């Protein structure tokens, strides 16, 4: 694992949880799976602190534990889940667009808490929504509505149950997760319970506080004795399902930009029909017929059957293998090849990096190599229409940074240079990993720069916050104006400059994470594609 990625993970944890958690993460990132005594010795913290910090990381699904061969418990940190914290706003917005405000708050609450009971989450979100409705004068809602949104998220696999390690003697969370994954549907079963009743009982207890001290003590003891019906069934966000949805959105946007908006909607309908019928790691979707797509199309598109078949033909011809026809039955069966679609998107991101780093002529050479696969230097000069001297220099620049590779094909066993062909080619997965590492470094630098900007202007920003807090409490316009004038014009200009810089850095992090998402999705699909090819060869 790269140092830049480790440093990025430590920065993210320090920003969200503080310096002490970052110290624990450094030990786990450096050593890998290790026991409690080693973490205690390397971190320099007290035993009580280390236990609390590990419990916090386990609560947020960042650290898991298992029993090693010697019977000791080892703790393992997961860099992917740390890095995905940058995408939390995208997950929340995704839930909002699909299921509304209640689902948005549910996903946000689960992301903030890591793991939580369904009853606790539903009650919390219901109270929060009712407070907002009371302030705006709208009627209150029941917990059943929020529970329905929770069920919708579970049915579409956006949230799932956590593996219960207490049921396993060896306390192996990984084994527990594998056992539960055996029956996939068990992860999404909603416990049967009347949350409306629990909310009303909770309110009743809170309003019956007027009584003798003896009654109060009995009521408090009863509250402590009562446990929720879903006690022990914790829920968490299913990141893979959100990534599947985001991947589909990227592919739909690609089809819409390459053909038109209706083609994008046709592909979106196709993906919606097949999204829960295959695993998130599959490289191809299940086969869907034209009849199913036609029945599921939004009515506002007003597409006839003939026009739909034309759009599906265009998707097959123009999307470079993303969409293909596999059979003629039921009007035609079609599948989506996610590997090829993500490969084209990854190539587009890599080409953008090549152009910005090496120039437009290097991009021409790079595209020639992508199309022609293996080519000699003379062939590259002819195809790219670049002089021999310039082509040699450009090829060396890209070769020195591993954006292109060189293959030697010798005519004779002695590998003499005069009797050897030197073929240039592009290893797309290798270049994708290089760009991925550069993205990690860029995100880390953006976060460090943002922290530096805020630290350098902390005095002015704190002053602005204090002034804003005072102005909110005042009702007299003259007093407000007088307080606001305590910030001088140069200070106002400085504050605006800092805010603009921080906003640009936040936007930079978001765009880099978009590139990371495409590259990581492609690398994952590429690995799965290679495994499937190996399995097919073994069968033969």
Our measurement of the CA-to-CA distance between the termini, rounded to an integer number of angstroms, reads 35 Å
- β-strand number: 11
CATH structural class of the largest domain: Mainly Alpha
CATH architecture of the largest domain: Orthogonal Bundle
Structural class: mainly alpha
- Which strand-content bin applies to the residues? 5-15%
Tally of individual helices = 24
Q: In angstroms, what is the radius of gyration?
A: 29 Å
In terms of per-residue confidence, which ranges show pLDDT below 50 for 5 or more consecutive residues? 166-182, 197-210
Helical proportion, percent range: 55-70%
Q: What overall form do the CA principal axes indicate?
A: globular
Task: Tell me the CATH topology of the largest domain.
Answer: Arc Repressor Mutant, subunit A
Let me know the average pLDDT. 85
The named CATH superfamily of the largest domain? Winged helix-like DNA-binding domain superfamily/Winged helix DNA-binding domain
Strand neighbour order, sheet with most strands: 1-3-2
Q: In total, how many domains does the architecture comprise?
A: 5
Sheet with the most strands, sense and barrel status? 3 strands, antiparallel
């Amino acid at each position: 694992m790269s140092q830049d990625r480790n440093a990025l993970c430590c920065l993210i944890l320090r920003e969200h949880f503080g310096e002490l958690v970052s110290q624990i993460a450094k030990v786990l990132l450096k050593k890998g799976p290790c026991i409690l005594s080693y973490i205690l010795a390397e971190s320099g913290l007290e035993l009580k602190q280390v236990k609390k910090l590990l419990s916090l990381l386990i609560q947020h699904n960042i650290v898991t534990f298992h029993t090693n061969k010697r019977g000791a418990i080892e703790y393992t940190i997961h860099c992917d889940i740390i890095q995905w914290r940058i995408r939390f706003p995208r997950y929340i917005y995704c839930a909002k667009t699909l299921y509304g405000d209640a689902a948005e708050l549910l996903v946000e609450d689960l992301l903030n808490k890591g793991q939580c009971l369904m009853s606790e989450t539903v009650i919390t979100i219901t109270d929060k929504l009712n407070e907002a409705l009371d302030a705006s004068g709208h009627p209150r809602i029941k917990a059943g509505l929020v529970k329905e949104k929770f069920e919708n998220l579970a049915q579409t696999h956006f949230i799932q149950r956590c593996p219960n390690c207490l049921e396993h003697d060896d306390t192996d969370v990984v084994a527990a997760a594998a056992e539960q994954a055996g029956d996939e549907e068990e992860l999404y079963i909603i416990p049967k319970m009347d949350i409306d009743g629990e909310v009303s009982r909770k309110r009743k207890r809170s309003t019956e506080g007027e009584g003798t001290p003896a009654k109060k003590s009995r009521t408090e003891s009863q509250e402590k004795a009562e446990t929720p019906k879903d006690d022990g069934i914790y829920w968490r966000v299913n990141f893979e399902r959100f990534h599947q949805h985001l991947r589909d959105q990227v592919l739909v946007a690609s089809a819409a930009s390459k053909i038109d908006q209706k083609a994008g909607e046709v592909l979106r309908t196709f993906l919606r029909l097949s999204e829960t019928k295959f695993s998130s790691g599959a490289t191809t979707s299940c086969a869907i017929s034209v009849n199913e797509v036609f029945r599921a199309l939004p009515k506002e598109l007003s597409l006839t059957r003939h026009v739909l078949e034309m759009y599906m033909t265009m998707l097959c011809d123009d999307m470079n293998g993303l969409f293909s026809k596999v059979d003629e039955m039921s009007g035609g069966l079609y599948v989506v090849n996610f590997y090829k679609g993500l490969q084209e998107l990854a190539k587009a991101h890599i080409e953008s990096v090549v152009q910005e780093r090496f120039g437009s002529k290097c991009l021409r050479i790079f595209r020639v190599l992508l199309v022609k696969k293996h080519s000699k230097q003379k062939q590259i000069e002819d195809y790219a229409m670049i002089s021999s001297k310039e082509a040699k220099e450009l090829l060396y620049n890209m070769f020195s940074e591993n954006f292109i590779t060189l293959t030697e094909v010798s005519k004779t066993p002695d590998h003499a240079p005069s009797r050897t062909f030197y073929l240039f080619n592009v290893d797309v997965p290798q270049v994708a990993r290089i760009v991925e590492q550069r993205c990690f470094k860029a995100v880390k630098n953006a976060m460090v720069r943002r922290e530096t900007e805020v630290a350098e202007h902390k005095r002015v920003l704190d002053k602005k916050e204090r002034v804003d807090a005072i102005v909110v409490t005042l009702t007299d316009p003259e007093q407000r104006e007088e307080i606001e004038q305590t910030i001088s014009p140069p200070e106002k200009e400085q504050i605006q400059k800092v805010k603009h810089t921080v906003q640009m850095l936040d936007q930079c992090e978001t765009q880099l994470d978009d590139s990371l998402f495409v590259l990581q999705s492609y690398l994952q699909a590429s690995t799965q594609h290679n495994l499937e090819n190996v399995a097919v060869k073994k069968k033969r």
